[in-house]
Amino acid sequence: MEKAMGMKSISFRADEDLASQLEELYESKGGGAERIIPGFMTIRKYTLHELQGVFTKEEFAALVAVQNGLLLDPKVQANGKMLNAHLEFSETYDRNISGNRAILNELLEKINNLTAAQVYFLQDEIEIFWRTGKETLEKFISRFA
User: Fold this and answer.
1) pTM of this structure
2) How far is CA 119 from CA 27, 31, 33, in A?
């Protein structure tokens, strides 16, 4: 089979449930991945734009601090209640919210008002920040707050 111009072949591992869903919805795993990955990246771009200005610098710094060393599970990453529970736990035991001069209840309310996509990509972007180390904390925060 000939590759489309400018297209690269990639492969990835998927659990059985995801592979089955791709086949069921798109008739093949590869065809499903080809279909959804560009859409995922487009949704990511628009969602990150929507998140600009939602949080203060202090709140965003707190979100970054809370997620330092955290391993995310993509299957629950879009759940705002899970994020809020983690924020409450982090404040109780590590003071990551008040330590960054943010107010826990105000931050929780803002998370409650986010869409699932916004919760997902907010955490994803912070995970990318920690994993890559490509930006200073100040520059990273300035993209959103």
Assistant:
1) 0.90
2) 30, 27, 22
